[in-house]
Amino acid sequence: PRPMERLTAILEETSAARKKVKVKDAVVHWFKMDLRITDNRGLWEASEKAREAGVPLICIYLVSPQDFEAHLTSAVRVDFTIRTLRILKEDLAALDIPLYVETVEKRKEIPDRIIEFMEEWGASHLFTNMEYEVDELRREAKLVKMCTDHGLAMEVFHDTCVVPPGALTTGSGKQYAVYTPWYRSWVAYVHANPELLATFDPPSKNPPDARDKVAALFDCDVPDVSENKTLSKEDAKRFHAFWPAGEHEAKGRLERFCEEKIGQYAKRRNFPAQAATSSISVHLAAGTLSARTTVRTARDRNKTKKLDAGNEGIQAWISEVAWRDFYKHVLVNWPYICMNKPFKPEYSNIEWSYNASHFKAWCEGRTGFPIVDAAMRQIRGMGYMHNRCRMIVASFLSKDLLIDWRMGERFFMEHLIDGDFASNNGGWGFSSSVGIDAQPYFRIFNPLLQSEKFDPEGDYIRKWVPELKDVRGKAIHDPYGRGAAEQAKKAGYPRAIVDHKDSRNRALSAYKAGTGRD
Ligand code: FAD
Fold first, then answer.
1. Nearest to 483 by CA among 491, 493, 473
2. How far apart are CA 331 and CA 269, in angstroms?
3. Strand runs (DSSP E) across 26-107, as ranges?
4. CA-CA distance, 104 to 65, in Å (whole number)?
5. C-alpha triplet 104, 422, 245: angle, nearest 5°
6. Which biological process terms from the Gene Ontology are attached to this UniProt entry (predicted)?
7. What are the phi and psi torsion angles at 24 (to 5°)?
8. CA 2 – CA 157 distance, rounded (Å)
9. 384 marked ligand binding residue
């Protein structure tokens, strides 16, 4: 069985035993990537259990540097998590709920540590939200069993998607492999189950005597994490200005976007120089915002309750948020994508180039293709990249440079503040044509045309490539080919490292040979 099926089966097997567990001295909510108090299903369920029994709710977060390594979590994302934890700790303290944070060196020790804490605190019930990556599902399945063996009850909830993975199937009972029919089914499912967009209240305040019982747990510090995931002072200052942390910021960002920009989203979303998208991916990734809140807030701006009617901008935006659900559903159904394998097995034999100097030029934003370089400098400068540019640089790496898409996927995870395995893997699969519902392999973005179409004035390029800031007119898209060679050379901007026409032909041959297609 797939890891989620296995976890679900174990939850069913242990259901009777879990129901029999009596609430002892405390109930625990284990935070992972759901770092908010509002509209958090697992936290709300834990709070209700504690409230009904009149015992304290304790929250726990375990920092594992090994987990950060294993997930290739970027330093900027680790920093964002730590800043968020500090805010979360304060918000919970205002409700007299402690957030106990501890560093666990080895990630495989997490289940044992949790059981130890539960026993130390006399806690009988553990609540958490489900994460859909393979290791996490396996770990949770193990922990549910361990809890049952120790006479404890662990409950695991679907929370991160609007529609839980597995809920939508084709007429023949299979997971959809194409987004459009899946999206129609997603919309119909939400319309039929409007409670999916209901909100979960923040937890109730711990009663005063309950607070006293757990008073010692308020004292713990939120640790700084491992040395190689720490930002320099200069980087920290810049990233903190771009990305204030915590759920209050997330809510504000969402409200502002819905107030000011969502109506124009369909028309403007593809232009990286216009700040026309929501930039809430960082909050959805850290769980400082729930997908339910996101879709509900957008829907409530519309004149209709229907997700696929009314204002075009709102519809378009909701359908983008749905892509996030789609890729998580895909991950649950085809977990082998977690193992470095392309979604389409027939794309396993492409002979990739491992040209180190090309890869370095791409990473550093020195390919000589201004739109690609601007985007790569944006990811380094902000920990973020505009969606159109993510597609451009992913196509450029996997097709123009014919470099293994997995190297780009990894680089993104190591640099993005919103790095999310399912969406990142899905995006790379789409652009390199090896993924689910991907671009056909023969559709190869022309970086020059993309640049002219989506950054017509060159403002995005000028912002991120200072060597070209004084280049005027159309030359900005191709300075060496369009009469700004002297200027570019003087400023130290490199010439194009490949010829797009040649590399396009090379990519077509390699994809055809690798997949045995004509
Ligand atoms: P908006 O345009 O405002 O969209 C709202 C939300 O919808 C986003 O925050 C995001 O949660 C979701 N969304 C939008 N587009 C997509 C999409 N194509 N796939 C999945 N979800 C989407 N997104 C990540 O969150 N993490 C990643 O690691 C990631 N890696 C990507 C890699 C590649 C190669 C590509 C092509 C796309 C990737 N995306 C990733 C999707 C998308 O680029 C970002 O979600 C988006 O740019 C975030 O900006 P925003 O919040 O302003 O988006």
1. 473
2. 26
3. 26-30, 57-63, 99-103
4. 8
5. 60
6. circadian regulation of gene expression; entrainment of circadian clock by photoperiod; nucleobase-containing compound metabolic process; response to stress
7. -95, -115
8. 17
9. no
Residue type (1 letter), 454: F
How far apart (Å, rounded) are the C-alpha atoms in residues 489 and 476?
13
Cα separation, 171 vs 190, whole angstroms: 18
Q: Which atom of ligand 1 is nearest to the CA of 428?
A: 34
- pLDDT tens-digit readout, 160-217: 999 999 999 999 999 999 999 999 999 999 999 999 999 999 999 999 888 888 999 9
> Do 23 and 55 meet the contact criterion of CB atoms below 8 Å apart?
yes
The 10s digit of each residue's pLDDT in 325-354 is: 999 999 999 999 988 899 999 899 999 999
Backbone phi, psi, residue 305, to 5°? -85, -10
Cα dihedral 272, 469, 431, 366, rounded to 10, equals: -150
- Residue in this structure with the two tokens 């030029």, named with its chain if needed: 361
Chain length of the chain: 518
- Contact by Cβ (8 Å): 288, 245: yes
Q: Report how far residue 124's alpha carbon sits from residue 126's, in angstroms, rounded to the nearest whole number.
A: 7
Q: Which residues are catalytic?
A: 320, 323, 352, 387, 405, 428
Stretch 231-245: mean pLDDT: 95
Q: What are phi and psi of 63, to 5 degrees?
A: -90, 125
How far, CA to CA in Å, does 366 sit from each of 216, 492, 507? Answer: 53, 10, 21
**Distance from the alpha carbon of residue 418 to the mean position of ligand 1, in angstroms:** 8
- 48, 125 in Cβ contact below 8 A? no
CA-nearest residue for atom 48, ligand 1, is 281
Tokens of 427: 């995006």
Joined tokens for residue 435? 């993924």
